[in-house]
Amino acid sequence: MNYRIIPPDGFLEARLSLPLSKSMSNRALIINALTPGAGELEHVAACDDTDAMRRALSSPEAKEINVGAAGTTMRFLTAYFAACEGREVTLDGSERMRQRPIGVLVDALRALGADIEYAGEQGFPPLHIRGRKLKGGEILLDSTVSSQFISALLMVAPTMSGGLKLSLKGETVSRPYILMTLRMMEDAGIDSEYFEDTVSIAPQTYRKGLRRVEGDWSAAAAWYEITAISSGAVTIDNLAEQSCQGDRKLADIFLHLGVTTEWQGEDGGSDLLASPDQDARLRIDFSDTPDLAQYVIVTCAMLGIPFRFTGLSTLAIKETDRVAAITTELAKIGILLQPEGRDVLAWEGQRRPFTELPRFDTYADHRMAMCLAPVALFVPGIIINDIEVVSKSYPGFWDAMREAGFILLDGDAPLPDPVED
Fold this sequence. Notes:
about 425 residues, alpha/beta, UDP-n-acetylglucosamine1-carboxyvinyl-transferase, Chain, 2 domains, four-stranded mixed sheet, about 20% strand
């Protein structure tokens, strides 16, 4: 299904609750599955990724498990099943998942004693896994590809007979996600040491299950973008100010784009307020927060703020090549971005006229849909194709946009006639 989006008439005001963090949810589900007597985690994100994780963990007899497009789920389950003694399973995903490399993680697990075979192309899913007690030991891992590989290894490390000493080489991407993993493991009773580029975890037992998952800071990105572009005001009821999520940096980034975050007290909640106090130019390294990049790119383009963004190399192996996708889609409204290799994207304000309302493609990527939808504030009547993709992380996104005053029409229907005063 496709939506044509008409922006609110007048000043934009909204109040909403975000979905729970899928990053925290997936980690909590794995940790609880490794914790004796932990039971089921009751409150987790309601989205495709965590649904895939819950189905896999609640199917102890399944010989074949398909996680669809859930990349985090694929990586975490690869390590989890490799460490499950006696479990034999083939782990597969969508066609796009079969194009997303997993060789770095498989090689590391094999070095630690895992029995994993490729059931198709070498270096990519599907995987045939025979679970066993992993011996553990010391390994050196390329940390420039995905922090999820590192988190996957860390969560199963306490179950290894020799523990794990993991040394990272290269510039570690998404480091805050590694810190989130270690903090959640600590909450479940696991001690670790993280010094410089080495993480050490001795053999030990998870002692208590996790119960609390925060609102998703990644999902808040679209609302920061909407606030900045509309000069409106948005209240979010369930953002934690003192959060373990790396995307908490969102509030700091959007200060440069004229959005302040006012906290409501100990019970959580925040008011996003727009102001004209914006930077004239923006330079940001997104190595630690790649999931925020698309929203900031679109915001800058709509506000006419030139930028140079680095740390984007991992976006090529997400649900789609996100730098290529956002460059293609913004060109439909005359925004001419300048990719420089895989890591850099720049814009000096280059534009060209466009003569028709754009129909934006989403590339089976939830973040493409959510970062492009606010463009309707500048170009009323845009069309977003395949709107169902938001179910991966934020199934209620379109309902929240309606509550904020946006009008969502059938994308194949003509624009409505203007209403006369």
